[in-house]
TrEMBL record:
Gene3D superfamilies: 2.60.120.920, Zinc/RING finger domain, C3HC4 (zinc finger)
Coiled coil: 160-205
Pfam families, sorted: PRY (PF13765), SPRY (PF00622), zf-C3HC4 (PF00097)
UniProtKB keywords: Coiled coil, Cytoplasm, Metal-binding, Zinc, Zinc-finger
Main localization, broad class: cytoplasm
Protein's name in the database: Tripartite motif containing 105
Taxonomic path: Eukaryota, Metazoa, Chordata, Craniata, Vertebrata
Homology family: Belongs to the TRIM/RBCC family.
Source organism, top-level taxon: Eukaryota
GO MF annotations, alphabetized: zinc ion binding
Annotated PROSITE patterns: B302_SPRY, ZF_RING_1, ZF_RING_2
Repeat recorded as keyword: no
GO CC field: cytoplasm
Residues annotated as domain B30.2/SPRY: 237-433
Length: 438
């Protein structure tokens, strides 16, 4: 019974009392072949037989002492079955198994709980990260807008100050004219007074000569106030003019790149202003240059970057094929190389008119909803990020988070289209087309 006592208490108490009920009062053990006497008491068949053995005449129930004239008892199969059940469920093996099962179930629950607890910790960590990133982004966005507001505030202050100054100048001009007129009037009045005195004197005496008069100052006609000239430059389209001026202050605004002709593959022709590059059938004879791409039809911009944030826009039109992005200064320009960050290229590419990919290894196919004709490239040297935008609507196309270290150059490949059609160029966009002064 010691093993049974170690079992869970609910089971133990039920089993305990049941076991007592199924215990023979003679041998004090579980019934063996239980039989029932007419008084309804149960005993083991061997026990009651042994108990009655040697008794002459009527026998008695060992429990209630009731007398029976004949030795009758009935086999109780129901009790026998229950005894067998209790015996089985209180055996050492059964209890060991039960304990093992309990332990295993407990262990599996403990593992699941620990697993859930770990996930809770992970989720909380994720929430913290999201909150931190969100707050960080909000701070950055606020900063960017503060800079824009500052540009507009400065522009407004400057313009209002200019209006105030011009207004002052115009007022001063009129003020000076007014003063001159006042002086002239005073002088004229003085002369008039003298003439009136002289005229009054002629009634008594003979006037021999006119009184000595003061010379009168000649006052010019009032300067014309040019209302149109004053207001025109502050009228429409003031917002557009201001917006154009803002371009100079944007950080980063679109960089006006030019192609580096010395880096161009011999099959690339570059325009005189170095903003248009196009593939050509023949090979252009150049001075040999270490910077020149000799195997791939590539070209770099003349402007390299190794710090700060930079953005530029490129027009690819409806070219069926191109690569563009940034290339590390150190790339091997004399051999054929697969474009990937590992080989110093962070690029976006188009093949077959509508197959866009990011230049990872292997390529990452991009599903674009439209075919951009202009692309924006953003380079953040500090955060090592290279991002590509559809410059038609400024939607993000792809972003490399493992950007370059060290100096990089804007990179372009007009590719050899191989079609019979006139090859289409890659254009570096300068926007706005003409910088405004002031
Ligand atoms: Zn017995
Ligand atoms: Zn009895």
């Amino acid at each position: 019974m010691a093993a049974a006592a170690a079992a869970p208490c609910v089971v133990s108490s039920t089993k305990g009392s049941l076991r007592e009920d199924l215990t023979c009062a003679i041998c004090c053990d579980l019934f063996r072949e239980p039989v029932m006497l007419a008084c309804m008491h149960h005993f083991c068949r061997p026990c009651i037989s042994r108990y009655w053995r040697g008794t002459q005449g009527p026998v008695t129930c060992p429990q209630c002492r009731k007398e029976f004239s004949c030795r009758n008892f009935q086999t109780n199969y129901l009790v026998a079955a229950m005894v067998e059940k209790v015996r089985a469920t209180t055996s050492d093996t059964y209890i060991q198994n039960l304990k093992k099962q309990l332990k295993e179930t407990l262990e599996s629950y403990r593992l699941r709980r620990d697993d859930h607890n770990n996930n809770i910790t992970r989720d909380k960590g994720k929430m913290d990260t999201i909150k931190r990133f969100g707050a960080d982004l909000q701070t950055r966005v606020k900063g960017e807008f503060r800079a824009l507001h500052q540009i507009l505030d400065d522009e407004e202050t400057c313009m209002l100050e200019q209006i105030r100054r011009e207004q002052e100048e115009e007022l001063e001009k009129v003020e000076r004219h007014l003063e001159a007129l006042r002086v002239a009037v005073r002088e004229l009045e003085e002369n008039m007074r003298m003439l009136q005195q002289a005229s009054a004197a002629t009634e008594n005496t003979v006037l021999t000569e006119l009184p000595q008069l003061r010379p009168c100052v000649q006052v010019d006609v009032a300067p014309e106030f040019d209302i149109n000239g004053f207001s025109n430059k502050y009228m429409a389209p003031l917002q557009y003019i201001t917006w154009r001026k803002m371009f100079k202050s944007l950080k980063p605004g679109p960089s006006p790149l030019t192609f580096d002709v010395e880096s161009a593959h011999p099959s690339i022709r570059v325009s005189r202003d170095k903003t248009v590059a196009v593939e050509c059938d023949g090979m252009i004879l150049h001075m040999d240059h270490d910077k020149r791409f000799l195997q791939c039809v590539n070209i770099l911009a003349a402007q390299g970057f190794q710090s700060g944030r930079h953005y530029w826009e490129v027009e690819v039109g409806s070219k069926p094929k191109w690569d563009l992005g940034v290339a590390s200064d150190a790339v091997d320009r004399h051999s054929r190389i697969k474009l990937s960050p590992e080989s110093g290229y962070w690029t976006l590419r188009l093949r077959n008119r509508n197959e866009y990919s990011a230049g990872t290894q292997p390529w990452t196919r991009l599903q674009l909803s439209s075919s951009p004709e202009r692309l924006g490239v953003f380079l953040d040297c500090e955060e090592r990020r290279v991002s590509f935008y559809n410059a038609d609507d400024m939607s993000l196309l792809y972003s490399f988070a493992n950007g370059p270290r060290g100096k990089v150059f804007p990179f372009f490949s007009p590719c050899i289209s191989g079609s019979s059609q006139e090859p289409q160029p890659i254009k570096l966009l300068h926007y706005p087309p003409v910088a405004l002064s002031g």
